[in-house]
Amino acid sequence: MTLRRKKSRDKDGSERKKKGKNWVYWIIYVTVVAIVLFFAVKIVRQKVKILSLSEELSEKTNTISLQKIKLEEQKKDADAADRNDFDSLMDNILKKARELDYVRPGEIVYINIAGD
Questions:
Q1: Segment 68-95, tens digit of pLDDT
Q2: Which pLDDT tens digit goes with each residue over 13-66?
Q3: What is the dihedral of CA 17, 23, 29, 33, to 10 degrees?
């Protein structure tokens, strides 16, 4: 005589699903939810990082534009100073070069060999 297990039936007479299948579906459901939550958190972190980096970029851009303005002002000041001081500067350079026996390009040097 063989013993058979009595199958449990629902109200409508269909067999109940096995408990093993319920656990598989539950594990798949939990896994999918965990993956979705993981990617949701990852996306939120990336958006926060993007926002902070964009703020930093705008600050750096503002700093660069201010530095460019300052540089232009300094160039204007230097050009003005160069125009005013150029003649006196060239005279001083030429005087110092003559003291050190330098000659300008294209200039002909005459040496007095008589010694007088």
A1: 999 998 888 777 766 666 777 777 788 8
A2: 555 555 667 888 999 999 999 999 999 999 999 999 999 999 999 999 999 999
A3: 160
CA distance 81 to 86: 8
pTM: 0.44
Cβ contact 54:47 at 8 Å: no
Residue 31: both structure tokens together: 């896994």
Q: At 51, phi and psi to the nearest 5? A: -65, -45
CA distances from 27 to 10, 13, 16, 106 (A): 24, 28, 19, 94
Which 3-state string (H, E, C) describes 20-84? HHHHHHHHHHHHHHHHHHHHHHHHHHHHHHHHHHHHHHHHHHHHHHHHHHHHHHHHHHHHHHHHH
**Tokens linked to 53:** 């980096």
